[in-house]
Amino acid sequence: MTPSTLPFAQPGRFYRGNLHGHSTNSDGAWSPAEYVRKYRQNGYDFVALTDHCTEDHGYDISDTREYRDDDFTTLLGAELHPGQIESGSAWHLLAVGLPLDFETHREGDTGASVARRAMEAGAFVAVPHPNWFALTVADIETLDAVHAVECYNGVSDYDSDRGLSWHYIDMLLHRGHRVGAIATDDTHARPRVNDFMRGWVYVKSDALTPESLLGALKAGHYYSSTGAQLHNVEFLGREKLIVECSPASYIYVTGESAGALRISGAWLTEAEFDLSDVESRWLRVTVRDEAGGRAWTNPIWLA
């Protein structure tokens, strides 16, 4: 994403959605119908049901098309598990926007081959919960390309305090990889597991349709949240940045160097940053509210 492609000035409106979750078609506790109903009843505009495509679960993509209407929609997706990572465990790859006839398993598949095939099939491809399963930056660099990495994963946060993965994204950015960042629930809805409505994306789209949402995701026209909201992020030339948000305690601008530009206070709803002394190829904005909720822009490339 660049200053000219920030989502806030794009046409359309923001739609709230969860891009990662599981049903009884794999290892989740809710049926597909219940999964969709729970999110719809709690103010979401869309979901992706991304059941695990493994031998135990038949390698099938969950079909949620019957739950679409004018006010709510679904994106078809899956969590794919080809090959192995450096630690010896199977890959986890999130693919949203897959066609139902996508071949989720081939003998000899690798993370790179599956990510490539999913992207060629039109999917938005992301690396989920890297901090949770000890993925390395070297692992991610074996992939030809991905659209995003999960910066926050709700079930990993609750289960093991490994929900945040921004350090992986920052290292990839330092190496020149232009990846986005998504927050998700990774919903399983098991008893006594709080993995519902913990992380989501706001996608700026001109229509609430799978095609439009998928196009906006691929273009980076979204931001991620665990509670806070971003209303506007705007560059005025190269040396000034304007941020407008829901009431916040901290607003940060982070780049390649250590530290960050920071404004703190009570019920902050706007801030202006002087970037004239900032030397960085990329920046990102973080808003943190009194309850600990955050909102993050995608990395914004300046050069």
Describe this structure in words.
The N and C termini lie close together (11 Å). The longest helix has 10 residues, at 32-41. The protein is an alpha/beta fold and 303 residues long. Strand 14 (282-288) and strand 15 (294-296) form a beta hairpin. It has helices at residues 32-41, 111-120, 137-141, 154-160, 166-174, 210-219; strands at residues 13-18, 46-49, 52-53, 73-80, 93-96, 124-127, 148-153, 180-184, 200-205, 222-225, 230-236, 240-254, 260-274, 282-288, 294-296, 300-301. It is built from six helices and 16 strands.
Main sheet properties: 16 strands, mixed
Share in β-strands: 25-35%
Q: Can you count the helices?
A: 6
User: Kindly, what is the distance between the CA atoms of the first and last residues, rounded to a whole number of angstroms?
Assistant: 11 Å
Query: Would you report the number of β strands?
Result: 16
Q: What fraction, in percent, of the residue positions are helical? A: 10-25%
Whole-number radius of gyration? 19 Å
Low-confidence parts lasting 5 or more residues at pLDDT below 50? none
What's the rounded overall pLDDT mean? 96
Q: What's the SSE pattern?
A: EHEEEEHEHEHHEEHEEEEEEE
Structural class by sheet pairing and helices: alpha/beta
Q: Given the C-alpha coordinates, what overall shape results?
A: globular
